Amino acid sequence: MFVAYNPQLDLSSCGKTIEQAKKNILEATQLFFAEAKKIGTLKNILEEAGFAFDNEWKAPEMVVFEKMSLAF
Protein backbone atom coordinates (compact mmCIF):
# COMPACT_ATOMS: atom_id res chain seq x y z
CA MET A 1 0.00 0.00 0.00
CA PHE A 2 1.30 3.46 -0.93
CA VAL A 3 0.21 6.64 0.85
CA ALA A 4 0.07 10.03 -0.86
CA TYR A 5 -0.06 13.12 1.34
CA ASN A 6 -0.66 16.79 0.64
CA PRO A 7 0.87 18.54 3.68
CA GLN A 8 -0.36 22.05 2.80
CA LEU A 9 -3.99 20.91 2.92
CA ASP A 10 -3.51 17.97 5.30
CA LEU A 11 -5.10 15.58 2.79
CA SER A 12 -4.07 11.99 2.26
CA SER A 13 -5.08 9.03 0.15
CA CYS A 14 -3.61 5.67 -0.76
CA GLY A 15 -3.42 3.03 -3.46
CA LYS A 16 -1.96 -0.37 -4.19
CA THR A 17 0.54 1.25 -6.59
CA ILE A 18 2.32 4.60 -6.65
CA GLU A 19 0.30 5.56 -9.72
CA GLN A 20 -2.98 4.69 -7.99
CA ALA A 21 -2.00 6.67 -4.88
CA LYS A 22 -1.16 9.70 -7.06
CA LYS A 23 -4.46 9.38 -8.92
CA ASN A 24 -6.38 9.09 -5.64
CA ILE A 25 -4.72 12.12 -3.99
CA LEU A 26 -5.43 14.19 -7.09
CA GLU A 27 -9.08 13.17 -6.97
CA ALA A 28 -9.28 13.87 -3.22
CA THR A 29 -7.73 17.31 -3.72
CA GLN A 30 -10.10 18.16 -6.57
CA LEU A 31 -13.10 17.09 -4.49
CA PHE A 32 -11.81 19.06 -1.49
CA PHE A 33 -11.43 22.24 -3.58
CA ALA A 34 -14.83 21.79 -5.24
CA GLU A 35 -16.61 21.35 -1.90
CA ALA A 36 -14.75 24.23 -0.20
CA LYS A 37 -15.60 26.51 -3.12
CA LYS A 38 -19.23 25.35 -3.05
CA ILE A 39 -19.66 26.19 0.65
CA GLY A 40 -17.64 29.41 0.43
CA THR A 41 -14.66 28.49 2.61
CA LEU A 42 -11.92 28.02 0.00
CA LYS A 43 -10.26 31.43 0.50
CA ASN A 44 -10.13 31.01 4.28
CA ILE A 45 -8.77 27.45 4.00
CA LEU A 46 -6.00 28.49 1.61
CA GLU A 47 -4.99 31.49 3.71
CA GLU A 48 -4.95 29.40 6.89
CA ALA A 49 -2.76 26.81 5.11
CA GLY A 50 -0.19 29.49 4.25
CA PHE A 51 -1.12 30.10 0.61
CA ALA A 52 -0.70 33.67 -0.68
CA PHE A 53 -2.67 35.40 -3.42
CA ASP A 54 -0.83 37.63 -5.91
CA ASN A 55 -2.86 37.39 -9.15
CA GLU A 56 -2.93 33.63 -8.46
CA TRP A 57 -2.71 31.35 -5.41
CA LYS A 58 0.83 30.33 -4.51
CA ALA A 59 1.59 27.44 -2.16
CA PRO A 60 3.92 27.91 0.79
CA GLU A 61 7.49 26.83 0.14
CA MET A 62 8.40 23.29 1.23
CA VAL A 63 11.48 23.48 3.44
CA VAL A 64 12.23 19.77 3.97
CA PHE A 65 10.92 16.55 2.48
CA GLU A 66 11.87 13.17 3.91
CA LYS A 67 10.73 9.62 3.26
CA MET A 68 10.66 7.16 6.11
CA SER A 69 10.25 3.45 6.45
CA LEU A 70 9.75 1.37 9.53
CA ALA A 71 10.76 -2.21 10.16
CA PHE A 72 9.56 -4.28 13.07
Give short descriptive properties of this protein.
72 residues; alpha+beta; two-stranded antiparallel sheet; 40% helix; globular
Structural overview:
This protein is α+β, with helices and mostly antiparallel strands and 72 residues long. The protein has one domain. The two termini are 17 Å apart. The protein has two helices and four strands. The longest helix has 22 residues. The strands form two sheets. It has a two-stranded antiparallel ribbon. Strands 3-4 form a two-stranded antiparallel ribbon.
**Spatial gap, N to C terminus:** 17 Å
Strand order of the largest sheet: 1-2
How is the main sheet built?
2 strands, antiparallel
**Outline type:** globular
- SS summary, helix count: 2
- What is the number of beta strands? 4
What's the overall average pLDDT, rounded?
Answer: 92
| Sequence of secondary-structure elements | EEHHEE
**Percentage of helical residues?**
40-55%
- Into how many domains do the coordinates divide? 1
Low-confidence stretches: none
